[in-house]
Amino acid sequence: MGRKWNNIKEKKASKDANTSRVYAKFGREIYVVAKQGEPDPESNRALKVVLERAKTYNVPKAIIDRALEKARGNSDEVYDELRYEGFGPNGSMVIVDALTNNVNRTASEVRAAFSKNGGNLGVSGSVAYMFDQTAVIGIEGKTEEEVLELLMEADVDVRDIVSEEDAVIVYAEPDQFQAVQDAFRAAGITEFTVAEITMLAQNHLTLPADVLPQFEKMIDALEDLDDVQHVYHNVEFEE
């Protein structure tokens, strides 16, 4: 897939290493997903997915427990789930997912992050059709061939299996997220380098060296917004 998932995850983790922003965003997402269904990951598949991803980002248990307790309580906080689609420099494509209790504020901040960095917002559907929702699960200690054999024995179909640095990354349909993890766990593998359902671009764009810094600045500005949970794009970064 050419996504270099581990490099992306490490870059994001490094960016957030000295801040609590990533934990706050997870806390909000866990609360919202738990509030929408049962605050129990065994009966709430969406919550289980979020908690698995939180584990790979080393979100403290206290943050998770606090969000779940808040969802179980009588909190009347309501968040809207929003998706923005837009374009960056040289026709690059960007999707922004947000959770907000103030739609006008979020819309204004997202629009400003685009416009101040050579981008612009598009209409709904203008970008998303070029991305696929995908389950991404990574493990260490196995080869591609061993992972393929393991998944075949478990009768689990996947899109692709790729070696990325010291890990093997499995790309699958979203509804196979749990099946892939269950197959690994049955084989004694309980730790994942990545475990999430994300949006991957169907095709990637390489930006000219003089344009790339502006694009990176735009992505950083979007990711720094408190209401923004996820930013997806189709730009291929050089290692």
TrEMBL record:
Residues 79-235 form the TACO1/YebC-like second and third domain. GO terms for molecular function: DNA binding. GO terms for cellular component: cytosol. It is found in: Cytoplasm. The keyword Cytoplasm applies. Residues 3-73 form the TACO1/YebC-like N-terminal domain. Keywords: Cytoplasm, DNA-binding, Transcription, Transcription regulation. It comes from the Bacteria. Its main location: cytoplasm. GO terms for biological process: regulation of DNA-templated transcription. Gene3D superfamilies: 1.10.10.200, 3.30.70.980. It holds the Pfam family Transcrip_reg. Belongs to the TACO1 family. YeeN subfamily. HAMAP family: Transcrip_reg_TACO1, Transcrip_reg_TACO1_YeeN. This is Probable transcriptional regulatory protein J2TS6_01840. It comes from Paenibacillus albilobatus. The lineage of its organism: Bacteria, Bacillati, Bacillota, Bacilli, Bacillales.
